[in-house]
Amino acid sequence: MIDHSVWVAGPGDKDGDDGTSTVLETRTRTKRPPLYKVLLLNDDYTPMEFVVAVLERFFGMSHAQAFEIMLTVHKKGVAVVGVFSHEIAETKVAQVMDFARQHQHPLQCTMEKE
Ligand code: TYC
Q1: pLDDT grade, residue 46 (50/70/90)?
Q2: Taking the model in full, what pTM does it have?
Q3: Which residue, judged by its Cα, is nearest atom 2 of ligand 1?
Q4: Around 37, how many Cα atoms within 13 Å sit in the side-chain half-sphere?
Q5: What is the DSSP letter of 104?
């Protein structure tokens, strides 16, 4: 993200001639875009195998990785399953929620700013 700001300072007597000069200075700042955590929430009904399949399908995890994260959510109630730009995080959340609804599971997926 690039913020092209124009900083205006003045009026001020910069060079000591008469006291009514206006100084214009431009500078370019680069800011990193904000990142968003995608969270998966536990519930009592969604089958473990379904959650594992979601993590493999939408988050590119291996079966072993997916199983490990699924168990973390099952035991702790929530886990971060990835960190993305706002647009990608929104897409992941929508994909998981649509897939869960299609299969009539109450699985919940949300995002929050890191
Ligand atoms: N708690 C679920 C069960 O016992 C499994 C589960 C894990 C559900 C992770 C959701 O995000 C979840 N069947």
Answers
A1: very high
A2: 0.79
A3: 44
A4: 10
A5: T
Which amino acids bring their CB within 6 angstroms of ligand 1?
Answer: 40-44, 46-48, 51, 70, 73-74, 107
Closest residue to atom 10 of ligand 1, CA basis: 42
**Which amino acid would we find at residue 50?**
F
85 contact partners, CB below 8 Å, separation of at least 6: 33, 35, 36
User: 10 CB contacts (<8 Å, ≥6 apart)?
Assistant: 21, 22, 23
**47-66 burial code (b ≥16 CB/10 A, e <16):** eeebbbbbbeebbebeeeeb
pLDDT single digits (tens) 48-68 = 999 999 999 999 999 999 999
Q: Which atom of ligand 1 is least distant from the CA of 79?
A: 11
Residue type, 66: A
Ligand 1 centre distance from Cα of residue 99 (Å): 15
The residue contributing the CA closest to ligand 1 atom 7 is 74
